[in-house]
Design brief:
disordered N terminus; 16-stranded mixed beta sheet; 5 helices; OB fold (Dihydrolipoamide Acetyltransferase, E2P); 3 domains; SH3 type barrels; mainly beta; Glucose Oxidase, domain 1; about 375 residues
Length: about 375
Amino acid sequence: MAHAYTPGLKVTAKTKIVKERRLPLKGEVVVAKGQKVTGDTVVARTALPGNVATVNVGQLLGVLASDIPELMIKKPGEPIKKGEVIAQTRGLFGIFKSKVASPITGEVESISPITGQVILREPPQPVEVDAYVDGEVVEILANEGVIVETTGSLIQGIFGFGGERRGKIKLLAASPDEVLDAFGLTPDMKGCVVVGGSLVTAEAIQRGAELGICGLVVGGIEDSSIKQVLGYDIGVAITGTEPISLSVIVTEGFGKMPMAPRTFELLSELDGQRASINGATQIRAGVIRPEIIVPREVTGKERSKGSLEEGLKVGMQVRIIREPHFGGIGTVVNLPVDLEEIETESKVRILEVELAGKERIRLPRANVEIIEA
């Protein structure tokens, strides 16, 4: 029987995790298929072409463009240093020479006898891609990267910012509704992924960055706090490249929102274990969720049994993503087959959810997302 697609996020204690690690342009893969790697292992490397600087030598020397090749001291492919003379006129009786110095360190790329311009290029920038998670290389992407597979715990968030980082999980909050403020952060948390409760303040994020904390995980965040920390309004279309030294992962949404009990319990269980985190978020085609990954040994019987691709089923845990019960978490208790008319007079498929307080509500299936456990 066909079913409507229902978005969802994963909060799983034990599952298979596959990560594609790809270079921004073709380069060299430095590991082999079947090789065991850690998150810090470099799996591929390349070099990005350096920035280009254009110098109008003909104009600076006051000569014809066709004369430039003969007046160049440095030829294409030769290295240059900033301030080094790259071209000069013959002068009068060998003196009174006009000179042009290089504005950069790099090499001469090309000389044009038509425009009189010389193109200089800075040194290439080395780029390395690491494995991100502890696991095994299961596939080589020729000249581009690898696919790494591991098993362990995976927690996806609703929103985040900041890039990939790794650190030991440090549970700070005593309950899911506790606010994470700057006063609770201490120097011994350097390099840790600190877990809070319902909200993180701007001061806590700034303090965390000062202390060298690599990540903060909380239930909610105020939009004003993000602007205060970054200095500008952040777009939710795509994040992950912000100029900040830690990553923030929000599991529930904007505002003060207690972390879901299931998420808080799992993070409590993982306290003290090393995690790979990424705050990157993309809310459009090719959705990217911020994530926390903790590699762990998993037996066949312990693997996650549920799958988002299976669609909604009775007994599944869901999060309500629209008002009036936005942020509420409950269990699916009924999935009526017939369409029902809603306030907009549209006929849609609905479901019945039992919330934490045993209250039962009926709402459109499009108003929930599955929490894969």
